[in-house]
Structures are given as structure tokens and as C-alpha cells.
Amino acid sequence: MLQKEMMDALNYQVAMEAESSQAYLALASWADAQPGLNGVAAFFYQQSDEERQHMLKLMKFVNERGGFAVIPSLPQPQISYTSLKSAFETFLKHEYKVSSSINDLVETALKLKDYATHNFLQWYVNEQMEEESVARLLNEKLELIGEDKSGLYLFDRDIVGPVKK
Ligand code: OFO
């Protein structure tokens, strides 16, 4: 049976994954509306779907352990960006925020001696490491490209594929 403090903390993470899914959906829509960024749009649609899966995985865990997963209300995410670079900086910052929230959850699980939850959370720890590294790599690539149009063309063309785990 889940302790209440653990359940509340997991439900906070449910909301965070839902917010991530919405934030990346907004990034996808923004990119979709820009000329020539269909690759970037596809990347963020895919990220958004993944975040929803992360939310569902948490919800199922909470309910299976006798808790109650709460569906949160969500604030509107940022819907437009001044540049591709700022869009990807937002992506990276968001992933850092999620990683820190996962670390807090791990700490709570240890404090409560809830080793089943601690074990379950390891999947999220690894996932965050991978996502941070993808987000960092994409930001580094954009840094290199700068305003170079052919570089941006290739970035958009290659983003769904090799860069994705
Ligand atoms: Fe939910 O995986 Fe990153 O944010």
C-alpha cells in the first residue's frame, strides 16, 4: 500500500509529465506553423506522446499499489517562440526541471523506505539522463549552426532519426 506522502509526490509527478506533454505539443504546433520545420514538428509531436506515456506509467503504478492517480488541471504552456534556438533552450530547461523533480521523488521514496517505488523510479532516472543528453546535443548543434540556412535545413531533416534514441 502506498503511503500518502509518496502518493502525493507521485501525483505531483503525474502533473509534471502531463505538463511536459502539453509543453511539447505546443512546441510541435509552433514548429508546424513555421516554414520548413516539419522535422522539428515531428520530433516534438513524438516527445509529447512519450511524455503522455510517462504520465500513464506513473498513474498505473499509483493505482496498482492501492493509491489513486489524480488527473490534474493544466496551465497553458508557452505557445510561441522567437527562434528555433529559444525553442530548444526551453526544451532543455524543461528536462532539467523534470530531472530535479524525479530526484526529489527518489529522495522521498528512500526517506519513507518505500523500496518498491524507489525501484520503479529507476526507469525515470535513466530516461531523464537520456532525454537531457538528447536535448543538450540538439542545443549544441544549433549553437554550431548559428544562422546558417543550409545547416538549419539539415538539422530539421535529421532530427527525427539518428539523434533520437
Ligand atoms: Fe518524462 O521524460 Fe523527460 O521530461
Topology:
Blueprint: H1 4-32, H2 38-64, H3 84-111, H4 115-145, H5 149-158
Helix pairs in contact: 1-2, 1-3, 3-4
The site of hydroxy diiron-OXO moiety has 9 residues, from α1, α2, α3 and α4.
Main beta-sheet strand count, sense and barrel state: none
Task: Quickly give the CATH architecture.
Answer: Up-down Bundle
CATH topology: Ferritin
What's the number of structural domains?
1
Summarize the structure in short.
The protein is built from 5 helices and no strands.
Structural account:
Helix 1 (4-32) packs antiparallel against helix 3 (84-111) and helix 3 (84-111) packs antiparallel against helix 4 (115-145). This protein has one domain: Ferritin (Up-down Bundle). The chain is built from five helices and no strands. The longest helix has 31 residues, at 115-145. 76% of the residues lie in helices and 0% in strands. The mean pLDDT is 96. The radius of gyration is 17 Å and the shape is elongated. It has 165 residues and is an all-alpha fold. It has helices at 4-32, 38-64, 84-111, 115-145, 149-158. Residues 17, 20, 51, 54, 95, 98, 127-128, 131 line the site of hydroxy diiron-OXO moiety (OFO).
